[in-house]
Amino acid sequence: MEIIIQPDAGQASLTAARIVAKTVREKPHAVIGFATGRTPLKLYEQLVSMHLEDGLDFSGVTSFNLDEYVGIEPTHPASFHSYMWHNLFSRINIPKERIHIIDGMTPDIPAYCRHYEAAIKTAGGIDVQILGIGKNGHIGFNEPSSSLSSRTRIKTLTEATRLDLAEEFGGLDRVPHHVITMGLGTIMESRACVLLAFGASKARAVARAVEGPVTAMMPASVLQMHPRAVFVLDREAAGELELADYYSWVYEHKPDWQKY
Ligand code: PGA
Question: Which of 21, 125, 223, 260 has minimal CB crowding within 10 Å?
């Protein structure tokens, strides 16, 4: 794993944007996995600027999103469809037909999940998967106790996660209980994973994911088994890492050819 600690969320987001941009420049038909939530907002702003100002071209890119709420229409303001169109897709030149966001209204969830997994394979697999992390260590909506080899499927949100989402839905009672999410096994097949975490509220989950045991109780810890997982953190989110100084030294002394 590579642990990159930046002074603030803005600089960490720029680092993550450079990783995505490098992938897209080197492979114009790259497949990018996108995440939602508050954390990647600055990353998406950076990608929009790179598109508008530096001509970063998304016309050949295919995208897959991690998850969506069950029973929420794509037009609902808190849906991940709305989030992605508002924050990224309407502002870059990715073709609509190459965008894949899970349909939370599907009448046949198991068949739909199989179809989503097959679509990822048909597209050639995900080159870079962007991830956030929940305070309980979830990635996507793989809540604690998710199988480390799980595939895209329905999951039930924990109360803690529903509480974190209450503001977006205008009250806890409006937050759905069910979601469809890529599984940990699905995420692990991405060629690279870039996990972003900002703020002290994520420090414990980050430390357990990076330095704790690999366990289904801390789903992000499965990334310890990934050959190319990069954690991009601000100082606060890195606050409980035992080897923080070591990670910073390694990053500062990276040879030029390895830099993003
Ligand atoms: P957040 O969510 O970016 O809104 O903190 C992260 C997550 O739950 O994965």
Answer: 125
Alpha carbon of 257 to ligand 1 centroid (Å): 32
pLDDT in tens, 110-154: 999 999 999 999 999 999 999 999 999 999 999 999 999 999 999
Task: State if residue 37 touches ligand 1 by the CB under 6 angstroms criterion.
Answer: yes
Q: Is residue 62 over pLDDT 90?
A: yes
- Condensed to tens digits (0 to 9), the pLDDT of residues 4-26 reads 999 999 999 999 999 999 999 99
Give this prediction's pTM.
Answer: 0.97
SS3 readout for the chain? CEEEEECCHHHHHHHHHHHHHHHHHHCCCCEEEECCCCCCHHHHHHHHHHHHHHCCCCCCCEEEECEEECCCCCCCCCCHHHHHHHHCHHHCCCCHHHEECCCCCCCCHHHHHHHHHHHHHHCCCCCEEEECCCCCCCECCECCCCCCCCCCEEEECCHHHHHHHHHHHCCHHHCCCEEEECCHHHHHCCCEEEEEECCHHHHHHHHHHHHCCCECCEHHHHHHHCCCEEEEEECCCCCCCCCHHHHHHHHHCCCHHHCC
Measured from the CA of 132, which atom of ligand 1 is nearest? 9
Residue 164 CA: which ligand 1 atom is closest? 4
Query: Could you read off the pLDDT of 215-257 as tens digits, one per residue?
Result: 999 999 999 999 999 999 999 999 999 999 999 999 999 998 8
